[in-house]
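User: Structure tokens for this complex, please. No commentary.
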Amino acid sequence: MAQTEDPRRQKILARVRKALASPAQKPPQHSVAATYAPIADPLERFRSECAGNNTECIVTPNLRASAVAIADVLAALPAGEIFIQDAPELRAMGGAWSRHAVHWSTDTTPGNSNKRPGESSQATITLAETLVAQTGSVLVSSACGGRAAPFVAPLHIVVATAAQLVADLEVALARVREQGTALKNSYLSLITGSSRTADIEKILVMGAHGPRRLIVTVALSKE
Amino acid sequence: MKVALFIPCFVDQLMPDVGVDTAKVLRRIGCDVDFPMEQTCCGQPAFNAGYWNDARPLGERFVKIFRDAQAVVCPSGSCTTMVRNFYSELLAGSALHDEAVQLCQRVYEFSEFLVKVVNRLDVGAAFPHRVGYHDACHALRELRLKQEPREILRRVRGLELVELPYCEDCCGFGGTFAVKFNTISAAMGEAKASSASTANAEFLTSTDPSCLLHIDGILRRQNSRVRTLHLANILARTEPAAERSSEFAAPGTAQ
Amino acid sequence: MSSAAAEFLREAATKSADLAHREIIRLGIDKYDEAAERGRARFSDWQAARQRCQEIKWEAINHQDRYLLQFEQQLTARGGHVFWAETGEDARAYITRLAQRCGVRTIAKSKSMVAEEIHLAAALQKEGMQVFETDLGEFIVQLRNEPPYHIVTPAMHLTRTDISALFKEKLGGVDSNDPQELVGAARRWLRQAFFAAEMGITGANFLVADCGMIAVSTNEGNADLGMSLPRIHVALSGIEKVIPSLKDLAILWPMLATSGTGQPITCYNTLIGGPRTSNETDGPEEFHLILLDNGRSELLEDAEQRDVLHCIRCGACLNACPVFRTVGGHTYGTTYPGPIGSVLTPHLRGLDEYQHLSYASSLCGACTDVCPVKIDLHHHLLHNRRNAVNEARRPWNERLGFKLWRWTMMGAGRFTVAGAFGRGLLRVLYRLGVQGSALDPLGPWARFHAAPRIPAKSFRALWRKGIGAD
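Assistant:
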């Protein structure tokens, strides 16, 4: 039976239509007051929000400097796989990380035909779609190394540039619409800080199921 | 200014001192106070229990009794709310609906009347004690009164106003709720009672006599030294009174 | 009185007297209050934000058919399957058959109130599948074999000591009171589930019509693992979750977080538009979205209470409610506790059985004040009460009592006489020492209050005598 011929669907829709025949009172329209104060300095706001949500924000002059900063981070990690999104910018930076067991996202490894980070990978490195100053957030998509990349390892590193930073969520979502990001990707995630829970006595604990650390490198310019 | 007193049914029967003191204060500030004797009840108990068909005739009766009043003043946030916020819905379809909506705009809670209508924040009262104010739910959330009672209390000579912790928490009275769900109601009342002790208040006051009846019953059961007085009771006192126990008797005392 | 009502009264009495329990809840709510106040201060106009959310939801609910169809069309074009379930049984049957057909043995489940509502996990477990609750709070209550206590923080009634003992017994390998270590233990345990699961089940916070995507928010990241590692992703949502546009999330996401936990925004706000596409490197091969009615279209018919369907399940009303804070979430005995549960449950599960929840409130209005989408919650409790009376579901003695009461109040003379008689009777009875005994007419009141002092004269009697003239 074709989906649209399912009698349950017809019945539910019929009930909904019948119900909506009686109008409900519309809330009085107020003037569209701004709900947030305008953001004067997005980069400064991004940094202070990151400090508040446990994102380590590293501002660098260019991508080469970002690569070096990341190399320092990797050097301090226990030995293990580093999963990296296979993108030209990251390939160009990859020289700085060659000492580590790099797994590019396009490689399939034995027993891992899914092209995703291994269960015991130490870190993942991806690009991002957009950075959002209002909340200190990173918007990633499945094009940024896949769905699992931001979540599987205890450390997620985002490589971004200042040109990717927008002031607020409204602009970020408008950009998603303009660039067709929502249609090109089956997956988008707005990430704000490291994985956390307060389910035990409302005490905040980092590293529930997702990464315990999130690092965002923001290069002021590409070169 | 001519004022018609709207005295809640249970105040009339169980806490007449609240009505007496309300009249006293209004007269002191120069109002011409009347008490339309035909009044009985605004209908809130039936309305809150869902018996709107039984509440409706009482609403219509109220409108007829007070229709000629210039201003109606009531020493209860919940009863004022019933008239002002709910009569429109209750009397929808009644011939008196439009008149009710008109009348509503002239019905005021006591502290609201003092501050917003006659602008008398200082009513010449004196009460040198530590007093905690309980934000009664209807007064707070339906009539949007928060600062008004406090502004008046701050101008009472010798009165030290203390903010109670969790002052906006419901006391647990809620009408028939106090009977049907008495265990929950009592727990809420106990929390309110202990907030007064925590703040070291000598007295707890409010705009709503129903709250005070409930909290007082719990305080006295606990043998607490905290006593309750309605806002009108405090404002009626014009000079530091001697510590005679009958001065500060609980609500519903025989005159 | 229905059995549910009798059970509620019993539980409420127990919990009201349980001071330790009340203290735990108080501490949790105090932390929430502090965080929520900070969260609201981030808005330059909090009331305008609530207004905006109310408008978005009003638009969505009052044109629900249009937006549901748009959503379905978009999602189906992207390879997603949409199943319309009239009842919980429809949904359970669909998911069970799907799981059986695909040979699913292990399921990684993220928080879903709809799944709770239809008791999905139990149904799947009965078919021999292992269902792992991955939200930490849900995981904890699953181990304890009890329902969630709160729709946002399911384990808020437990101390770290309770949880430590639980983990020591059920998980082994951990013997600590430290929340960090306890979370670590849960993480290690549940990672196996994520990697072994053939199916991931999630809820959905919003269904975005103009791009055919579901929005799922978590702080832990468990939903994301459940939506990326297993081969099949099943999501459940009530039909009322649809919103018109992606741009609406710019205000709804922060409002949900601020009201839910006080955070500026939840850690992971994820959008899923179907299974993986051919050029994506990972992700589920199949995506099924279950649209559940289960009484919602009936509530839609009630134009007066239609706004109850605006609810975004933030839990703020639970936190604000003094009744919830006194008796806790389990006392309600329903999927949805607190004010929203008290309003909603009679509609979803019958007024006869559940009207008592609408009466178990002092109508303080704190819930209505905090609701981010401005649902008129406490007034709907009144409406439910009125409906109960008008549909003749109240006890005969109560109906008679109010008829008598009304008759008395309709005449000043009658009222005066009745009042004088009542007061006189109480004075006599109390002088005889009846207060607090079985003969006390104020029985339930007397259990917790000292007897009121009964005045000799009413106000009107004093007025007649000229009192008040100073």
